[in-house]
Structure formats: C-alpha cells, structure tokens
Amino acid sequence: LMSSSSDHSLAQPATFTAPASGLRGTVSVPGDKSISHRALMFSALAVGRSRVEGLLEGEDVLATAAALRAMGARIERDAEGVWHIDGVGVGGLLQPETALDMGNSGTSTRLLMGLLASHDLTATFVGDASLSKRPMGRVIDPLSLMGAEFTSSPGGRLPLTMRGIVPAVPIEYRLPVASAQVKSAVLLAGLNTPGITRVIEPEATRDHSERMLKGFGADISVEIDADGARIISIRGEAELKPQHIVVPGDPSSAAFPLVAALIVPGSDVTITGIGMNETRTGLIKLLQAMGGNIELLNQRDAGGEPVADIRVRASTLHGIENDPAEVPSMVDEFPIAFIAAALAKGRSVFRGLEELRVKESDRIAVMAAGLRKIGAMVEEADDGLIIDGTGGEPLEGGGPIETHLDHRIAMSFAVAGLASYQGVTIDDMRPVATSFPGFLDLLRNLGGAQ
Ligand code: S3P
C-alpha cells in the first residue's frame, strides 16, 4: 500500500499537443538496447578489457551492469556512452551477495538466467511490478534440461531463485515461441557447457547474440535446415577475447520520431546512425508499404551491424494488413505502428501478436484501451487489433493514458498527442527512462514537445 501510494505521487504526467508547424531537424537516438545488454554481458565474460561506445545508459542496461558488477566484473563509465569492462572469463562470475534487481528489464533477467545457469552459484532475481508478471517458464524449461534448478513464484514468475550447475548438460532445443531472449539464454548457458549446445528457431528472431558472440571469438555457427529453420550451434567451454564495440542507434527508439514525422503535417526529419539489421526493420517496411515517405541514406557497416540514416517526411498513410511472419522483426514496434494505423486512411488488421500480451504490459489490451480513450476506432482480437484510421485527420485526444510501467506505451501515446485536437495526457512518463533517456528533449528539439 505504501509503495503504491508513493509511486502514485511520484508519477510524472505530461500532455503532448499538436505543434504549430511540422517537426524538423536531424537527431540521433540512444544506443540499441539489445546490443547494449549483450555488449556488457559478453565483455564481462571475456579475458581482459573491452570498450563499448554508444552504450544505452537506460535503466534496463544499467540493471545488467549492476548485476554483472555484483558478480565480479569491473564495469566503468569513461564518458557519455563510453564504458570499459574488465571481464572475468567464461565461468568466472562469482556468487552475488544479494538478490539481483532486474528492475523493468525482461532482457536482463532472461539472458542473465541463461548466463548463470552454467555457473556454480545461486542467484535470486527480483523486479518491478511489470516484470514480476512476466513469464519466465520459457527460460526455466530449457535451462532445467541443462541441469539448473529453479524455485519460482507461482506461474513461473519473479521473484525466483536459480541454482546453476557445473558442468551443465548441452542440449538441442527447438524454440516453442519466437523469442530472441529464450534463444540467447540457451546460447549463453552453452558458453560454459562442454560440447555443443544447439538452438533451433523455426522463425528468425533478432540475431545480435550470434553476431556478437562470433565477434568475441566463440565457436558458433548458423545453418538453415530444409524447412527454413535456423540451427544455431555453440561450442563450450568457450574463450572470449575482449572487443571494442560500437553500438548503433536503436531502431526501436527511432520508431517514435519516425512515426511522429510521418503523421505531423509538414514534417521532415532525419534520424542518424540507426541499426538496420534485417531482423529489426519490420516497422520501416510496414510503414513504407502504408505509403510512408522513408529514405535510407548513407548505408554502412558499424561493428558487425548494418547502419543507416533515415529521412522521413510527412505522408498520407493508408491502412494495411500485417504479415504474421514479419512479427519478430518489429515485435517491439506494434504500439507505435498502431498509432500510425489510427491516422491512416482505411482499415488496418494486425494479427499474430499473441506475444504482445506478455511484454512490459499487455500491449494489445493497453493500446486498445488508450486508443479508444483518444477517439480512435479499435477492435481487439485475441492475437491483434483492427483499427479504422482517421485518414489523416487528427485524433480527438484526451486521457489520461494508463502506461502500466511500459515505456513504449508512454512514448506511443506521446506521439499520438502530436497529431490530436486536444492533446494526449499520459499518466506517467518515468518508464521512458528504461530505454530512451532524452526522449522529451528529442521531441522538443524537433519542435514537438509541450
Ligand atoms: C529482446 C527480444 C525481444 C524484445 C525485447 C528485447 C532481446 O523479446 O521484445 O525488447 O534483446 O533479445 P522476446 O525474446 O521476448 O521476443
């Protein structure tokens, strides 16, 4: 009771209204969240000092850093986004003295559970109210097959305690759900497991772990089988060599100014240095297919990942039906895609989104409720949303939108406010700090905030 009432008084509500003219300017966004977590984790397991530039200094990544420090890695910040890490070697993490606080971060939790499953230690994972509702059975299952032991809260949730095992047993695991976190958890457990650990993924998910582990010198290979499934094999016990990593801008963060520029009339915005890994570019393809004027400029390679600048101009969008096979390549971008659909001409049908119900919030239900509140026409299905757009006319607006500790809900409705008659009020903007510190400044620089 105490904490819920004090949480309430600390909440940072804000109202976002339509700017007098279009959004304009050139901006960058913080480093990729997925790549930042992995850069810290793999560096912590290398022998020697790694350097990371462009690290996302959001709460989720800082939770990973704190946990790794609590287990013996030395992690220090040299300048903004520039960090160095002295690793302990694969298998060298030490028993943490207190529970590992994962905050709001599913990626920290699931990847570290994997990493620690093949260490001789016991770790307790705790998190905030949002994270404590999310399913961990999907990592407990394969890691148990490898020999780790778990005591979890009902429903396979946090808080949970894991007892790792050395040596762990290598497994071949076919992913029952398209999840890069589950894939990565098994591969990371495989790092300190003798022999070959194999993950089969019927649907491709983001492959940052595979790319970066190869860069660190792990013996990892990817094959495609006759059915098109990816078979990823890693040989333990691995030895990782320290690296210098440059983290590209997060396409999942770029998504917000990108859609804002499309739906605010008169906008012309360039977002520089964004990761273009094709397991992450589903939103750009979808918006282009909706008629969005989006150009990729200056395409280049940075540290094993493709990168580009994105120029976006205000566009007349039309409704679309998504391809469920493309869901993993834009799994975090549906909330903001729904906002684009709410301003498009005609009906959009989004299906195959059952995973959205177990993100930081139930993003199908929370988006449907919020969209209705601001005057959009929405129908909720078990696995998606059907949205009848305004055809470019602003939304009515209103609020307050309930964000349920979900950063992407907060940012999506902030963007919706920029294309509304009355403005949109968000109950609490604090969750944005998990992935996108500087979001409000960025909107302000483009001429879009408050
Ligand atoms: C992530 C994988 C995705 C994504 C999350 C980050 C990762 O989760 O939603 O934000 O870094 O591996 P799932 O594996 O649950 O799909």
Structure in words:
The structure is a single chain. The protein has 450 residues and is α+β, with helices and mostly antiparallel strands. Helix content is 30%, strand content 27%. The protein is built from 13 helices and 22 strands. It has helices at 2-10, 33-45, 59-70, 106-117, 137-145, 180-191, 208-215, 251-263, 282-289, 334-343, 363-373, 407-417, 439-445; strands spanning 14-16, 24-28, 47-53, 74-79, 82-88, 100-101, 122-126, 149-153, 157-163, 172-174, 195-201, 219-224, 230-236, 244-246, 268-275, 293-302, 305-313, 347-350, 377-381, 384-388, 398-401, 424-426. It has a four-stranded mixed beta sheet with strand order 2-15-17-16. Strand 6 (100-101), helix 4 (106-117) and strand 7 (122-126) form a beta-alpha-beta unit. It binds shikimate-3-phosphate (S3P). Shikimate-3-phosphate (S3P) binds next to helix 6. Shikimate-3-phosphate binds next to helix 6.
Please name the defining characteristics of this protein.
about 450 residues, alpha+beta, four-stranded mixed β-sheet, 13 helices, about 30% helix, about 25% strand, globular, disordered N terminus, binds shikimate-3-phosphate
Gross geometry: globular
* Ligands, ions, cofactors: shikimate-3-phosphate
Number of discrete helical segments:
13
The percentage helix is: 25-40%
> Which structural class best describes the helix and strand composition?
alpha+beta
Low-confidence stretches: 1-6
Number-wise, the strands total 22
Residues in β-strands, percent = 25-35%
Spatial separation of the terminal alpha carbons: 33 Å
The largest pleated sheet is described as: 4 strands, mixed
Biggest sheet strand order reads: 2-15-17-16
Please state the average pLDDT score. 96
Rg? 21 Å
